[in-house]
Design brief:
CATH class of the largest domain: Alpha Beta
CATH architecture of the largest domain: 3-Layer(aba) Sandwich
Distance between the termini: 53 Å
Number of strands: 17
CATH superfamily of the largest domain: Type I PLP-dependent aspartate aminotransferase-like (Major domain)
Strand order of the largest sheet: 4-12-11-10-7-5-6
Structural class: alpha/beta
Strand content: 15-25%
Number of helices: 15
Largest sheet: 7 strands, mixed
CATH topology of the largest domain: Aspartate Aminotransferase, domain 2
Bound molecules: pyridoxal-5'-phosphate
Length: 487
């Protein structure tokens, strides 16, 4: 079975072009379409036996992914502007990544990280060292998911500093496991019914106009000063620096609304951490791996690079292995040398197939100039969304367009927001963002919302073509028009 799967992958990649792969996929998909009776009985199993705790964007089974597109068992074909929530940056089933994984499957799949090194693990470190956002980041630990890597980062921070408390940002998302959930502050759904959470966690404001209940035109400088002042207060009123191990921040808050942290804010956090001997944990699970590239000289694979700030601990996942489960915690050897052997680990941590895929991801990103494409497509998307914002028919509904690279959001006005929210607009339709996302899906594009506000997030593949970006923009404008006109 395994060999059949891998040889299928190999034949796709050996055939060379994506076109050939696509043709064979189309045949497979239509064959699956004929077996729709089986599909519907499987779906019934899903309805009956998959936990209700899991939400789902679309009905049916996804059976095929090729570049910027996915296909469902009934033949629905979608342009994928979700990338499986910011994961498949190189598109679905990138031939080089799939081939690297398939080849690895035929040599060794599981060489447990506490039993012995394996080659892809070390090759991956070799590839990552030169692209780290700071040269001090030279000590790696790989795990499976972003949440696990956050857990590892929190644990490391406590062990290394001998201090307990952690400060996270209002609106932050770091995952659903226990420690990660405790530092997650984007929506109550993630911890509802689960309290008490891990103790020793404090929240500080993130410089986002909507949280501050001021208008989107509020100067960044003012938002930044206010947020840093509140952090100073937190350190003198609630958690003493002597008890504070780490501050954890996403350089672009994801589940909190795709809000980039101002450069001055990140620099301010670094200064506060230096002053008080607190570690700065930078969570680039979503913003990393080229997702936010495209802003100037210091630009690279990570959002933090724009600020020049040195993370003490960097957390990576998602785009790292383009869909294979892999995350990483990167720090300085000088710090990680304080960990006792055996204190870190995990049965599947740093799996060989995932590491081999990640090596291929880094190579493909460089060989195919993906960061250049991010820059060009980002401009294309921003120009388009800014154009919509300036269009009189749409302007009254749109509050903000923001983001970095291809991690971009449009925030809409809300009629159902808190009565105390100064941005509330009673005259707009309720649930604008989810209505528009639903309309996009009906028109053939997968798109997600984010945050407690009416926000649409655009996370297309990093190597998306200009033509497909245009197509996505057209679908979005049509969906927006449908929803606004219907109102
Ligand atoms: C910034 C950030 N951190 C951590 C996580 C958790 O990652 P995972 O879902 O792989 O556990 C996510 C997931 O969306 C994320 O966006």
């Amino acid at each position: 079975m395994l060999r059949a799967w891998t040889s299928a992958l190999l034949s796709v990649s050996k055939n060379g072009t994506r076109l050939v792969a696509s043709a064979s996929r189309i045949q497979r998909v239509s064959a699956r379409g004929m077996a729709s009776a089986t599909s519907s009985s499987l779906e019934e199993i899903g309805e009956l036996h998959v936990t209700k705790g899991l939400g789902r964007l679309v009905t049916g089974m996804m059976v095929d992914g090729d570049g910027s597109y996915v296909t469902m068992d009934d033949g629905r074909h979608y342009l994928d502007f979700t990338c499986g929530i910011g994961v498949t940056g190189l598109g679905h089933c990138h031939p080089k990544v799939s081939k690297a994984a398939a080849d690895q499957c035929l040599s060794i799949v599981h060489s447990q990280c506490s039993i012995a090194f394996h080659k892809p693990y070390l090759e991956l470190i070799q590839r990552l060292l030169p692209i780290m956002p700071h040269k001090s980041l030279d000590s790696f630990f790989f795990w499976n998911s972003g949440s696990e890597a956050v857990e590892a980062a929190l644990k490391m921070a406590r062990i290394i500093t001998g201090k307990q408390n952690i400060i996270s940002m209002q609106g932050a998302y770091h995952g659903r496991t226990f420690g990660a959930m405790a530092v997650t502050k984007s929506k109550t759904i993630y911890s509802e019914g689960v309290h008490p959470l891990m103790p020793g966690v404090f929240t500080t404001p993130f410089p986002y106009w909507h949280h501050a209940n001021v208008g989107p035109e509020t100067p960044t400088k003012k938002l930044t000063e206010d947020a840093l002042y509140q952090l100073d207060l937190l350190l003198s009123q609630q958690t003493a620096p002597e008890n504070t191990a780490a501050i954890i921040v996403e350089p672009v808050i994801g589940e909190g609304g795709y809000v980039p942290a101002p450069v001055e804010f990140l620099q301010g956090l670094r200064a506060i951490c230096d002053k008080h001997d607190i570690l700065l944990i930078v969570d680039e699970v979503q913003s990393g791996f080229g997702r936010t590239s495209g802003r100037g000289k210091k630009d690279g694979f990570f959002a933090i690079q724009e600020s020049g700030v040195r993370p003490d601990i960097l957390v990576i996942a998602k785009g790292l292995a383009n869909g294979f489960p892999l995350s990483g915690v990167v720090s300085r050897k000088e710090l990680t040398d304080k960990l006792k052997p055996g204190s870190m680990g995990g049965t599947y941590a740093g799996n060989a197939v995932s590491c081999a895929a990640a090596v291929a991801v880094v190579d493909a990103m460089q060989e195919e100039n993906v960061l250049e494409n991010v820059k060009a497509r980002s401009k294309q998307l921003f120009d388009f969304l800014s154009g919509l914002r300036a269009t009189p028919a749409y302007a009254p509904f749109i509050l903000d367009v923001r983001g970095r690279g291809l991690m971009v959001a449009m925030e809409f006005a809300s009629s159902t927001a808190s009565a105390h929210d100064i941005a509330r607009k009673r005259e707009v339709p309720a649930k604008l963002a989810s209505k528009i996302a639903t309309r996009c899906i009906e028109r053939g594009m997968l798109l997600l919302t984010t945050s407690v506000y009416e926000t649409i997030r655009f996370i297309p593949p990093l190597n998306i073509s200009e033509e497909d970006m245009n197509k996505g923009c057209e679908i979005f404008e049509q969906a927006l028009k449908d929803v606004v006109t219907a109102y």
